[in-house]
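Limitations
The structure tokens in this dataset are predictions for the assembled complex, not deposited experimental models. Users should treat interface geometry with appropriate caution, especially where small molecules or nucleic acid strands are included. An illustrative entry is reproduced here so readers can see what is and is not provided.
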Amino acid sequence: MTDLFQSDLSALARQIPPGASVAINKGEGPDVPMALAKEIVRQGIRGLKLITIPASALPVSGMMVDMLIGAGCVKSIETSGVSMSELGAAPRFTKAVKDGALQVLDATCPAVLAALHAGAKGQPFASLRGIVGSDLEKHRDDFKLIDNPFEPGDPVVVLKAINPDVAIFHARYADRDGNVWIGRHRDQLFMAHASKKVLVTVEEVVDRNFYDDEAMVTGMIPSFYIDAICEAPGGALPMGLDGNANIKAVLAYMAAARTDEGFQAWLDENVLAGAKAAAE
Amino acid sequence: MTDLFQSDLSALARQIPPGASVAINKGEGPDVPMALAKEIVRQGIRGLKLITIPASALPVSGMMVDMLIGAGCVKSIETSGVSMSELGAAPRFTKAVKDGALQVLDATCPAVLAALHAGAKGQPFASLRGIVGSDLEKHRDDFKLIDNPFEPGDPVVVLKAINPDVAIFHARYADRDGNVWIGRHRDQLFMAHASKKVLVTVEEVVDRNFYDDEAMVTGMIPSFYIDAICEAPGGALPMGLDGNANIKAVLAYMAAARTDEGFQAWLDENVLAGAKAAAE
Amino acid sequence: MTADAPCRDEEIYANAIAGLLVGAKHVAVGMVSPIPGTGALLAREKSGGKTRVSILGKQKMLPWTDGSQELFDLAGQGRLDGFFLSGGQIDRQANINLVGIGDYPDHKVRWSGSFGSGYLYFVVPRVILFRWEHTRRTLVEKVDFISAPGTSEPGVYRPGGPIALITNLCLFEFLKDRGRFRLKSVHPGHTLEEVRDNTGFDFDLPESVPETPVPDAATLETIRGPVATRIAEVYPVFARDVFGIEPAKAPDAA
Amino acid sequence: MTADAPCRDEEIYANAIAGLLVGAKHVAVGMVSPIPGTGALLAREKSGGKTRVSILGKQKMLPWTDGSQELFDLAGQGRLDGFFLSGGQIDRQANINLVGIGDYPDHKVRWSGSFGSGYLYFVVPRVILFRWEHTRRTLVEKVDFISAPGTSEPGVYRPGGPIALITNLCLFEFLKDRGRFRLKSVHPGHTLEEVRDNTGFDFDLPESVPETPVPDAATLETIRGPVATRIAEVYPVFARDVFGIEPAKAPDAA
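Predicted assembly:
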């Protein structure tokens, strides 16, 4: 057994310093680190600079980001979009922007991905077509319009590499040596390569080594990119293991989060209750 | 069944126009397209601009490239290295350079990979640390030293994207719909994304669809990147399916290829014999 | 829903969208785009499966094997023919705004964000704009924030761009050379005057303005059959409301 | 081979190399580098497995899951502590030439190519140079082609570079500040004079020149046991010649 394993979520969350930049993936699969996000709220870690890879606009990933914002953990968010997909707008995000309480670094999806990719390679910047003439370009210091060095008169945007302080995600399996299986969720791989620290919750730790099975190696992040792992069954809920969100749970959150009081009551019941009970 | 399948290698090779730029992978696994390369020699396709991803310096991949050079198919080669690894130098490559019969675009491995990656993304260029002050930089029009747009006074090399006309490789499996399984040989995936045409030989076509099996999808190139597939069992020989090269066969080639006559005799016996017999 | 049920507006829109995708090899459908998804899947059925449709939002329905970047890489390589974009505001020159109303960053109203628009609008040859609320609030003379511009100056790499805009009143085509829209057809039950009154910008007119066609019986059957079943996997709420069907697998089983 | 057999030169070199890698987290070994591979694997054994060693050339021995680029990406991220480079020529300033002798591109002699040197030399903190033929032909005042420069001008991003050069005569350390080599030890059976006579460039000297240590019995046992077994999987010819062992699986089974 490797020493990467932590026995509980609080030990994982303690490795996220206040003010850290934290990468969070899109959440198309059962990889939303909701349990860890709730622990971040319980520990009151503040000033986080979220970076969504490349957006948080699916019901559960949107809800997680919205909750972190509502709970006051987030100072800024670099994103191509925050919403609950077809369920509607993210209530706390919308309010925080209106109140001027949240800085948004507006991006477009491939720009976040290209900049993260440059970071994963340890390179200073990436080139990207498009963006020219948009207002995205005007408001970002880390997007620059240059002349293509190989074709004068061809304007191209270059993007400064992104290297998050911390990447967090939920995965299906870790093996006993700390290799993490992600299947074809390659975004987590790029996040892990690019980030200075990688904290992972997994559905299950299995007593084997994935290197013994070429099919598993193919969809795996090697342990040397990982800093800590905690087994947290259901750690992506209300995103189910089958990739289907519990829509009722998301709608209940959205209804509550429409008001400050409703959001606080939801937090008390769904996030803080356990911590309070434990503290009493 | 998709119409991507070709019944023989000659139909595959005919899709490579004379003068085309052709990407060839490193050959660490049983993915060297040796059978197809022999067919290129038989068809006398000339003027090829080889691009090795990022080098051809393992016994069988080195031998394949050396054979193509010796047979007069190659006009130029962009590479970070050509050799037979610990077995020694590539005899026809070495001779062709000495004779001035082959243009070598000398590169360094990550530069080839970064430029191919930019090509796979449809972007104009990539940035790469290193190279500054080397003679590689001085001799390549497609490497340029610029000032980091985000940090004045920081010199950085940018590399023009590579988009080969054709990519060729051997793979373990194709499914009946033309999806090609490569396992963790990700280089072939980048080659396929970056290239205008992708020609693949496979060990075996299996009667299933890999999308039904998430473990297979993870290591797969979707059919919409592939232009033609030919089932060619043993298509990487003398590289075995277990990833071990038949060293005796490579050494025999190297011994023969030391002289023009020896190389021609080897070609006659190992490549052209079948074609001649068929033509008689 | 049977083929006898009256044709719904969503079905007219989807049918019009499918008509814009004839001959496309690969069409992708972005987030929160159930009607475009329906239109693209209809185009796929009509092509006999030759048009590939990739719908974002549900990993297992996507063909990617290289992560989220693959959609954009595919588009960058010129392998993606069609995509859909919307806007909180869309203006005369087809600039789109997905960010908010008012001065950036101090919006009066903040929307979700620009998503892939700032890139895909430049590189996908057939971008279809959709905005169901056709009012002077949504179709404006000038957007407050340009998430992605409708046209680019000469010299800017721009193989892609808008070809049409569909709303709950009409279908516009976009004239690239003139950098403005031309009305193509008005949906059944609506009038040119209504379109004019509710559009915040000036647009070109054809000699006569046809009515947007209603899908024929065979098309309706396709929409309500294989297309509806597939769309329900990504947009369960939409499929329930429009087609009255539930996805094969309960979406809220957590 | 038993632990009683006399110590071979390769074992002395490997032992010296292992000494340069103490505390390294991840060391990679490039192509055609059997002695560096032996040294790195010895460092791994001595660290109790804490030093990870990745040997290029055989896919199944590599931990990568992102293709060939992963080695370079790992190095770019600062996650790779050690690497090995050689050169057909190596000069006073630790510039290396892997391309050829004479004017580029019309070489009198052409070598295989620069491989990863043009990048890894810049970003890996502990690059160990090796060149077993120690002559004035190989260790020259100025290389004919710079595959990778030994030092860089101020302002150039350069977290990595050479720390040492090992030959069949001696071990040099590289003084980054002075941009030149200093002799560290002379291998048993050789002399300072011999080193001087066969080196084409000037180098610094310590106050006294020690002899390169011969590995002790326990170290020899480790080299000839677990290290030899593993090296035979990648370098079967080397393992046969030096350790007299065959790989567990025949390498020429096609």
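Some entries come with short summary sentences. For this one: Chain D touches chain A at residues 25-26, 52, 63-66, 69, 72-73, 75-79, 123 (CB under 8 Å).
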